[in-house]
Amino acid sequence: MTAQITRGRHDRGSPDAAPQPPAPSRHRLTKIDLKFSPYIFISPFFIIFAIFGAFPLAYTLWVSLRKWDLLGGDGGFVGLDNYSAILKDSWFWNAVYNTFGIFLLATIPQILLALVTAYWLNKKLRARTAFRMGVLVPNVTSVAAVAIVFSQLFGRDFGLINWLIGFVGIDPIDWPAGRYSAWFAVATMVDWRWTGYHALILLAAMQAIPKDLYESASIDGASALRQFWQITVPLLRPTLLFSVIIATIGGLQLFTEPLLFNGSNNAILGGSLRQSQTVAMYLYEQGFTRFNFGYGAAIAWLLFLLIIIVSLANLVLVRRLAGGSKGAEQ
Amino acid sequence: MSTKVKATKRPWDAGPVTYIALTILALISLFPFYWMIVISTRTNDAIADVPPPLLPGGRFATNVAHLFDNYEAHFAQGLINSAIVSTTVTLSVVFFSSLAGFAFAKLRFAGRNRLLLFIIGTMMVPIQLGLIPQYMLMVKLGWNNELQAVIVPFLVSGFGVFMMRQYADQAVSDELIEAARVDGCSTWRIYWNVVLPALRPAAAVLGLLTFMTTWNEFIWPFVVLNDPGNQTVQLSLRLLGTTYYNDFSLVFAGTAIATLPLLVVFVVFGRQIISGIMEGAVKA
């Protein structure tokens, strides 16, 4: 409505689109420009997000409350039936177990190693950029390429890893076949790809810590290790939290690495015994190989819930861990 | 003299341990790439050699030729599609992000802060959870198996808007914009002639990050592009890996070709990418 009124004014002011409109009209044009340009400039984000982001998320909720499969189509409202069925579904819990297992096995060493790497990178180094690029380069490769190369490295017959562990007397392992060996291999891929990224983020935060804090701690006789735990880590808390939450969102949605690690052998099931199927893979299995859209959508919401719960748990944990020794620095 | 150096040694001076540790880490980071090259330049039998081959061979061209001759893998089509998709998405994200970032940083309008907060909030929501309805939507639109299905939803980016806003906030002075206004520039002209040139460094970083992310995208194309003849290169790689898992030299030649564009970009623009990631972290 406002738009119409202003357009009307504009028309009266300049009846023809002259290249050099008279001053009063130009003033009105400027007013329109000032008023509406900001909204026009930001609108593409909101339009596309509404159609392809917000609508599907809300629609997921609606679909999850219905029986909806390939044969029957939309079979009507069933309330929370899909959810209660999932909570009794042992395949779902198997996927939850795998997802958390891989997530913990990957994230804990990843954050610790990233922290130490950032500490090293924060020192006065020659060839600083080269070292930073060295640790970041895995992050620029595609998951598909990483998974293919690592699947070969972890191969049973000709894999380099089995060849290497042979030297310490360990028999060759069929990595994808066992649950925990598959977890380990997948966690290795995730860590290889992401540790450098987290190290750089932590490094950025470390550089913001004033050096004189360390100087005075040195004078007080605090060892390097003590300084690291009592000055560096507490002051990194917000960034550490950011890192952990990024790792949580990615880790709980893990999909491509385990899928490709299983090659062509029941890939979407995570192996013939579902030994490395994650929740995201189970969601895909139900939605796109069995076409149980309602059931799959309910899995999606439960996964979202899991991510929120774990993120909140991380928030509390990081506060506790890094906050416990905060008094020392003051 | 040496005692004096020792006495002034500060905790942030790097010793040999630091250099050794970082070198080992860098070698671990680089090894899989190196291994990719070793295997893709040899015959397939090399994979079974004990001890394993540690130097590249001379068969890269032959293996790549096999790869492109292989009709079922549709590898060339995958590369072309990925180039189209990544380029379109990158140009669009940079354009819309800089436009919106400029508006959020420098223009006054009602609801500015709340709308920005909303955009930041969207960055935290895992959009992939809408996978099933997104797929249903694409079927309704008739876009499944079409490239627009992997282009249109990614034309804008909340991260991009936020990043450009942060940069525009400090890189463009209010006086400059006021001066342009006095000269009679429209808001669009100010964006195009004053703001966009000033945003160029940040736009370059955003473009690089967007290109790499789009090139590497897997799960959504996997869901929506089912026709093996019209996929992105990541899906071609998967097809290669699952159907030709006996022929490692072929599969690794494919991964090498699909990774090469990214490595080139990384080597040329590594410094900018690193500072982009680090600056983003401090502001977030």
Could you explain how this protein is built, in words?
- The complex is a heterodimer of chains A (330) and B (284).
- Chain A is mainly alpha-helical.
- Mean pLDDT of chain A is 84; it is low at 1-22 and 325-330.
- In chain A, a hairpin with a 3-residue loop joins strand 1 (66-69) and strand 2.
- Chain A folds into 2 domains: 2-64, no CATH class; 88-329, MetI-like fold.
- Chain A has helices spanning 2-13, 23-64, 81-87, 90-121, 128-136, 143-153, 160-166, 179-207, 211-219, 224-235, 237-252, 256-261, 279-289, 293-323, and strands at 66-69, 73-77.
- In chain A, helix 4 runs parallel beside helix 8.
- Chain B is built from 14 helices and no strands.
- Chain B has 2 domains: 9-66; 74-243, MetI-like (MetI-like fold), CATH 1.10.3720.10.
- In chain B, helix 9 packs antiparallel against helix 10 (187-198) and helix 11 (200-216) packs antiparallel against helix 14 (248-283).
- Chain B is 73% helix and 0% strand.
- Residues 1-7 of chain B have low confidence and may be disordered.
- At the A-B interface, helix 2, helix 4, helix 5, helix 6 and helix 8 of A face helix 2, helix 4, helix 5, helix 6 and helix 10 of B.
What structural category arises from helix and sheet content of chain B? Answer: mainly alpha
Distance between the termini of chain A: 59 Å
Supply the CATH architecture of the largest domain in chain A: Orthogonal Bundle
CATH architecture term of the largest domain in chain B: Orthogonal Bundle
> In which order are the strands of the major sheet of chain A placed?
1-2
CATH topology of the largest domain in chain B: MetI-like fold
Record field, number of beta strands of chain A: 2
Characterize the main sheet of chain A: 2 strands, antiparallel
Straight-line distance between termini of chain B = 45 Å
**Sheet having the most strands of chain B:** none
Strand percentage of chain B: under 5%
CATH homologous superfamily grouping of the largest domain in chain A: MetI-like
CATH superfamily of the largest domain in chain B: MetI-like
Helix content of chain B: over 70%
Question: In terms of per-residue confidence, which ranges of chain B show pLDDT below 50 for 5 or more consecutive residues?
Answer: 1-7
Mean pLDDT of chain B: 86
Q: What does the overall shape of chain A look like?
A: globular
Count of separate DSSP helical elements of chain B: 14
